[in-house]
Amino acid sequence: MLRSVGAVLGGYATMVVGVLAMTLVLYAVYGEALLEAGPEMEGYTGLLIGEIAAGFAFAIGGGWVTARLSRSRPWAHIGGLIGLMLALGLLTFLGEQGMKPAWSILGTILSGPLGVLLGGGLRVRQLAA
């Protein structure tokens, strides 16, 4: 049981570290301009799309790590990580409304579970080969 929780949390930690690093870089590059852009983030559409793409990439890594750390039933662990992400995504959606465009928030929330599914699936295929 502890190993299962560790597999899910390990995958989640992988994503968190990547997203935090990306956030630090973005704020180092754009600084206060991001805070002053307003809720529609006018002029930053490319940045928001990049945020979704980077989150997707980190989620692929998180899914791979979760499947790698699970000793058995990797799909169950991948599902656990997806469930965690969807639950936290709902909180994110409620908390970030009005801070960013809705399409950006939804894109971030939906791309994460898809990335986990892809990354976990890649690891499962490696195990089967």
Description:
The chain is mainly alpha-helical. It has helices at 2-30, 32-36, 45-69, 74-96, 102-128. It has one domain (2-128). 84% of the residues lie in helices and 0% in strands. α1 packs across α4 (74-96) and α4 (74-96) packs antiparallel against α5. The radius of gyration is 16 Å and the shape is elongated. The model has no long low-confidence stretch (mean pLDDT 90).
Note the main attributes of this structure.
elongated; single chain; 129 residues
Which segments are poorly predicted (pLDDT under 50) over 5 or more consecutive residues? none
Task: Quote the distance from N terminus to C terminus.
Answer: 27 Å
Q: Globular, elongated, flat, extended or rod-shaped: what is the shape?
A: elongated
Number of individual domains: 1
| Helix residue percentage | over 70%
Mean pLDDT: 90
User: Helix- and strand-based class?
Assistant: mainly alpha
Number-wise, the strands total: 0
Query: Helix-strand pattern, N to C?
Result: HHHHH
Report the total helices: 5
Radius of gyration: 16 Å
Largest sheet report: none
Please indicate the percent range of residues in DSSP E strands (runs of 2 or more). Answer: under 5%
